[in-house]
Each structure stands twice: as structure tokens, then as C-alpha cells.
Amino acid sequence: MKRLYYILFCLLFFCQLRGQQATLIIIPEKENKGINYQFSDSEHLPFYTLFQTKQAEPNGVFHISLPVQQPVVLNLLTEDRLSFRVYLTKDSHDTIRIRNNQPFFSGTNTIYNQCLQEIQKTEEYCHSISYSKHHELHAVDSLKEFTQIVNNKQAELITFLKGQNVSSDFIHNQSHIINCMFTHLFYKKILNLYNNRKITDEWLKEIKKQLSFDFQEGANLCYSEYERMLYMNTTINYFIIEKHSPQDIDRDKINTFLLNEYKKKRTGKYLEYAWASLIYNDIFQRDFSEDIPSLYDQFCSEFPQSEFIGILSPEIEKIRQFHHIPETSNNITILPTDTILKNLEEAVHPFIGKIVYIDLWGTWCGPCQKMFAYSKALKNATKKMDIIYLYISLDRPENRDKWKKMVYYYKLEGYHLQAGITLAKSLYASLGNKGMLAIPQFIIIGKDGKIAIEKAAAPDNLEKVVEQLKQVSNE
Question: What keywords would UniProt list here (predicted)?
Fold first, then answer.
């Protein structure tokens, strides 16, 4: 009889678990091999490199089932960088059809998902002030006008939510996210005014009010830009209110400075989250900052049971290796930085008579570093072609030590040149667009020392690069 009761209990428990599964079907407009997802909560660091991946079914459709006990928001990211959010509840069934790069919802939480879509549109409005000169607030220097526009936008969104058939808890939580979005927008505007020396006494009074933002409010941790917003809050207070100079901070210990500032106002899980985000942000950006391993050790001591330790640990070891890598290799040649080099033609002059494959990069550029993983395969494939590999860094002179360490860390066999100011300006002018130069950029130089292919294929497209090199060799 006891055995029968045990079996019945297990069956009931299993059925209960099945009833707590939220099911999501995603039908993409075009083929996607995988889709990335992550819960939006204080248990997950908001970096897409930490998202889980779901593979498509043979018919191209995605089926995601997740255990859900309480309502939660799920962040989704497609292969073609389309991002959106979905509201999941216990035993919910929802479908998303993607058309013209827009999600269309149906199912249990349709109204909630439509609300999240409206919030995301407004969030993009808040973010775009950083990169769009056409943003309606970009040229607004009047505090009164700025505040009026922002308050109206925020009020419209809150009114929209309250007019929908959604729960009060949903409105409460999303109101916190919306407040984060518009406070973040204010911080971006302040930094823009500061850089253009347009901050007035009126703005200063408002800044002091906005800096009192409550980072200890639990719902605010779900804001995807929480750590970035905290960073801005800290720098605005330090440089604008306290009137410090950038020279007051050791540039090699910027993360230590930020953490010390965070500790003044953050405690408990809020400090744990901000601290872990600070460390992972450096990892995510591939900055290899010298103070990060020490901050990680302190984090482990302060929060020995933190779930974030398992995420941070493998990456920290890479940073330790980076700062202890020996700067010696027979196949790596560091060329002297020649400040009188005027243009690319002069830079490649020593290699006249050879085909040169140039990699323009910078230590701050994550995509540049990702390409390094394909360098060895490319060189193996072109061994018999006598190709010169020239890496030209656009780093500032003060980054020379970091540049050299990165060359040896990634074992980039070939010739390496750190562009002087004159050469860098020439590259931006001749290869860029309106003063901007997208990197990584790859160029093939012919045997005559002239550019043969200005926009050459990247190393991750091995067949195309080899084809282009053969084409230039035969000319």
C-alpha cells in the first residue's frame, strides 16, 4: 500500500510540474538555425553571450518549454539580431510569428506581449539619443523643453499600460523599468551637454535630483542596462557634481574606482549584481583590464556562494594569462612606430614585390579579436603563396603595452605596426566615411604596393580570402 501511495504521489508531482511549463512557439520569417533566450531577472547578467540557445526544428520552427511558477519576462535574440521580449506564466501557450522583422503575438499572454512590445519601442527611443543626430531631443538644450517632452512620453506609456487588461503587478514592475529607461535617457543627455560644455545652473539642480535614483529597488535589477546606468550615475556625480578631473583616476584601475563608488550606495544582492556585472562587462568588451582579477578575488571573498562565480571564473583565468604572456616569438615582428609615415602606401613600401594582407584593428574592438581565431587556418591555407600578413593597430600611443600583449596573447604571426597619428588620420580619411572607420577591415595590397582589394574578405570566410589572394597573385 505504501508503494502505491508513493507511485501516486510521484505521478501527481510529475503532473504538477508539467502544468508549470510555459510553452512558446516561434515561427521566423526566414531561416534561423538557433535562437537565444534568457530570463530577465536579477539572477542573470544581461549579456547576450550568456544566453542559452535553442535549435530550430526540421521545419524551421522553434519550440521552447520552460518551468515557470511566477510570471516572468524572457528576452529573445534571433541570429539576425532581432530582439524582443515575451511574458511567460504558469501553463501558458504563446506563439510568435515574425514578419518584416516585427513579432506578432497570439496565445495566452497576447496583451502582455503587446505591452512589452510598446515598452521596447520606447526603450529604443531612449537609447537612440546616443547615436542618432536626428533624435528629437538631440538639439534640445532647454531643461524645460526637454522635461516636458520626456514627461509626456513617459505619461503616455503608463496611461497605455493602465488601459490594457493586465495585472496591477505587471504595471507596477514595468513602471519601474520605464522609470529606469527615462532616467537613463536623462543621464545620456547630461553627458552630451557636459561634453559640449552646455550645462547650466538650472540643469545642475535637476542633475542632483536625478542622481538620487534608487538602485536598491528590486524591480530595477530587471532593467537590461542596470550596470551601465549605475556607471553613468557614478561618473556624472564624480566629474560634474564633485568636479573631479579625469586625470584624478588611474586609467589602469578604472574598475577599482567604479567598484569603490558602487560600494558607497549599494549593499547585499544589489552590490553583488553590480559587482558581477562590472567584471563581466570588462570580459564582454574584451578589455583585459589589469585590475579585474583582483576585483574577482575580492568578489569571491565577499560573496562565496554567488552563482555568478561559475560564470566569471573561466574568463578570469584568460585575463590572468593575458597579463603574464611572454612577449617573445620567432614569427612575430613588432615594427617600430614610425611617426612620419604619411599613408598606407608608405607603410607597405618595405614589402614591395609581395602580396600583403592587411588587418586594420584596435584593442578595444571585440569583433576584431573574434577574427583572430581564424588567423592560423588562413596562414596554413596560404603557406605556399608567400603572403605577408600585416596587422595595423589604430590604438593611441598610451595603449602600446596593451597592444603588444594582445599580439602575443593571440599568437598573431606576421608583422605588426601601431599607426602613428599621421598615418591613423590618413587611414580614417582614405578608408573611412565622414571621419568614421569601421574595423576590423581587411585590405589586399598587390606586388606594386597599391591597393588591389580595399574591402577584402575577412579570415572567417577562408575560401573567399584564398580566392582573392590567388586573384591578386595572378594579376
Answer: Cytochrome c-type biogenesis, Disulfide bond, Redox-active center, Signal
- DSSP state letters, 287-326: ---TTHHHHHHHHHHH-TT-TTHHHHHHHHHHHHHHTT--
- Structural domains present in the chain: 18-109 (2.60.40), 113-127+151-322 (no CATH), 330-472 (3.40.30.10)
β-sheet bridge partners, residue 77: 36, 83
Name the band, by pLDDT with cuts 50, 70 and 90, for residue 474: confident
Q: Residue 147: what pLDDT?
A: 96
Pairing of strands 83-88, 72-78: antiparallel
Structure-block grid coordinates of residue 115: 505591452
**443 pLDDT above the threshold of 50:** yes
- Write the CA distances from 27 to 52, 66, 85, 192, integer angstroms: 18, 18, 15, 41
| Cα–Cα distance for residue pair 347/430, rounded to 1 Å | 14
Q: Which strands make up the sheet holding 72-78, listed edge to edge? A: 52-55, 34-39, 72-78, 83-88
SS3 category, 361:
strand
> CA 291 to CA 299: how far, in whole Å?
12
Backbone phi, psi, residue 168, to 5°: -65, -30
